[in-house]
Amino acid sequence: MNSVEKNSNETAVVVQDLERRFGSFIAVNRVSFEVKKGEIFGFLGPNGAGKSTTIRMLIGVLAPTDGVGTVAGFDIRTQAEEIKKHIGYMSQKFSLYDDLTVSENIDFYSGIYRIDPARKKARKEWVIEMAGLEHHRHSRTAILSGGWKQRLALGCAILHEPPVIFLDEPTSGVDPVSRRQFWDLIYELSGKGVTVFVTTHYMDEAEYCDRLGLIYRGELIAAGTPETLKTELMQEDVLEVICERPQDAMGEIEQIEGIKEVALFGKGLHVVVEETERAVAAISDLLQRRGYAVTRVEGIVPSLEDVFVSLIEARDRAEQPQQEVKR
Fold first, then answer.
1. Span 231-326 CATH architecture
2. 313 HSE (CA, 13 A, CB side)
3. Of 16, 70, 177, 276, which is least packed with CB atoms within 10 Å of its CB?
């Protein structure tokens, strides 16, 4: 039995040492992970990190250079066509036809997925209701708002009720209210046992996922639940500083020994430090001496953004000596 098929009853996606090269450029570098059935798995990383390339290999449109994997029990190397029948896929461009009406778009995708005529009408009405488009079924898709297009695109992607759906930056360019509504739909699908694999660079969205994979420069640098990443993988302490003129205070705080990073965060500052107690005293003393009104200086659980930045910087520091040796 192939090692990636051992847990096929519990897992929807299994990947081992997945790699994709474009000439000498390594877009995805020996990535390994598993996604459980019914799980919302978030693939988090900056633009160009390898998220979309990984998805393209998983959905059967790009062959891996190396490594093995299965999606919905089918081999990504040898059963790409079977994978396409058992997944839904939605990109940030929504893959809709603007010149067609809402109804015509749904009919088009019903044909692509070869939905049984007996089910076609019921599935179409489900999409229209889910997307909130009861009064726009005969409207051209081009005139719809971003949020409506987003929900219509999701409905078209899951018309055939696939067990696994891939969402590649699905909320890019959509307003915050529509993003929240879209995530409500994702929760609903997950509650029905659908596996959701979603890429995002929004840190707040990452909090909604059951588990996360952090990808940077083609490598998976961390994986786990949001809580695990925040409480176990952050190597430094984080302080929250609430004071007047926080932007001015940044420059002052950066001069203190033991301060590793200072960044604006909401109405205050997040300060990455080597040791909490000493840093709290030093920051409080400095700001008060410089005449800043200080409301709070205290240690906090880091945000995912704090964790991600810390892990990236740690990876860059680890690579820097190697680059210097090569020179």
1. 2-Layer Sandwich (3.30)
2. 12
3. 177
Residues 243 and 294 sit within 8 Å (Cβ to Cβ)? yes
Domain range annotation of the chain: 3-225, 231-326
Contact 220, 44 (CB under 8 A): no
pLDDT tens for 232-267 read 887 788 999 999 999 999 999 999 998 988 989 888
Q: How far apart are CA 177 and CA 60, in angstroms?
A: 33
Centre a 10 Å sphere on the Cβ of residue 292 and count the other Cβ atoms it contains.
20
pTM (global) more than 0.90: no
Give which of 36, 18, 38, 35 is closest to 27, Cα–Cα. Answer: 18
Question: Rounded CA gap, 105 and 152, in Å?
Answer: 9
Neighbour-count burial of 241, counting CB atoms closer than 10 A to its CB (0-12 exposed, 13-18 middle, 19+ buried): buried
How many residues in the chain?
327
Torsion, Cα 271 273 275 277, to 10 degrees, reads -20
Residue 260, token pair as written in the block: 């590793």
Report which secondary-structure segment, H or E, holds 306: helix 304-326
